[in-house]
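Final report, Chapter 2: Outcomes

The project's central promise was a pipeline that accepts a single protein chain and returns its three-dimensional structure in a standardized token representation, suitable for archiving and comparison. That pipeline is now operational. To close this chapter, we reproduce one record exactly as it appears in the project archive, with the input sequence first and the structure output second.
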Amino acid sequence: MGDADSPARVQRVLAASEGASEFLSLIGAEELSPCLFAESLVMVSESSQPLGQFSVSVQPACYEEQGGQEQDCFLVRAASQSTVNEVPCGSSITAYISKRLETLEQHQHEYVKFRAHPLDRKTHVVKRGGRLVVTKIIEEGEHEAQTQSFSYNCASLHGLVLEAANLLVLRVLAKRRAVPQDTFLAFDTEAHVCTSAYTAMGFQKQLVGMTEVEVFGIERAVYPDEGIPMTWQFYFLSDGHLARRVQVGSPATMLLQQLPVLIDGDEAEPRPVFEKKSLDWEEDVQLYSQFLDRKEELQAGHASYARRHPELRTLLADFLQLLLLRKPDDVLAFAAEFFAPFATQRPPGSAFQASDKPSPFCGRV
């Protein structure tokens, strides 16, 4: 075991099949969007006694990388709490998954609270530059916490599907009702890279509450270099909601207790089409009433402004009187000369001494 601050050792990894990486890259936003929801199952024993709960949620998020760069991604949370033979135990996962289903960062926590010898295990995985850094912290009983750190070259991890990303991939496969025949990479219990595979288990009938539904089964197996394979069986509704989860060899089963409102994202509703109709607002009682109200509102506003500025009436009266007295051919130029002394950017002068000579305002007409 090494210290957390010591350089991470580089681990040798296996290789996924050629189609695994391509399969993940071809899962588009249109397939992932209907998979963003939360769900909860109840954990029961072989005798159907409740033991605990299991919950999963996937939602859009933004992940900030080193250097301050941000990218849109998915935030995946999963947690289970149970009491088996009066021993509390549980696990939780919080992870940021890119839209290409690559793990950007993942925190995993597992615990078993034996009275004499409690066990607490934490695994942190983060992508830094071109490496995937793994840090493990294990606490057993009264012993001092042990920390181990190592890293992988991301270039050798094509086809890697960690636990949080696996939950999202399973929802996509459940909606497709099809499973790829590819070999993927995964982590074993020690966070060492190994191979994994998915297998379709066909359709079954399952009772959810008082309703019998059809579920599609998918088996995921993880093959560590040493020891026996770890196998999970998942059964999904047509929209990707999990109906049953079983870890082969475990006495506990996770079951859906209440049928959710199914998400139907297969067919998009057609956009409404509105026919163009000729508008005769004078004949439309509602529109004509709105016109009169707006007209009265404007008139009242104009009258109020004129009352607040009595100089306006005097100014316009003087201009109109002089205009009718001089009767110039170019009314616009005469008006410009008349109001020019009121401009703040021009020195005041007589508006009458130049009313008959050419004006620079004439060229603007």
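Archive annotation: The chain has three domains: 9-255, 281-327, 329-365.
This record, like all others produced under the grant, will remain available to the consortium after the project formally closes.
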